[in-house]
Amino acid sequence: MNRRKKIFTKLKQKDKRANAKLHKSNKPAYISKADREKLAQQEAEQEN
User: Fold this and answer.
1) pLDDT given at position 33
2) What is the mean pLDDT of each run of 10 residues along the chain (48 residues)?
3) What whole-number distance in Å separates Cα of residue 24 and Cα of residue 27?
4) What's the predicted TM-score (pTM) here?
5) What distance in Å separates the CA atoms of residue 42 and residue 1, rounded to the nearest whole number?
6) Angle of CA points 30, 36, 40, to nearest 5°
């Protein structure tokens, strides 16, 4: 029973990881603080 349970848990984990890779997150990409400041300066220059 214990060996069987270990095998099933390994297979479930593998399936879960594969499924997670298929469904990408909708979270926006990380932009560093310095890059955000550069973008804000560029937008300010374009407005002027």
Assistant:
1) 96
2) 94 95 87 96 89
3) 9
4) 0.47
5) 64
6) 150
Greatest CA separation for the chain: 72
Structure tokens at 31: 């932009």
Please give the single-letter amino acid code of residue 34.
A
- In the structure encoding, which two tokens stand for residue 21, read together? 């890779």
3-state SS, the chain, equals CHHHHHHHHHHHHHHHHHHHHHCCCCCCCCCCHHHHHHHHHHHHHHHC
Tokens linked to 37: 């400041």
pLDDT, position 27:
87
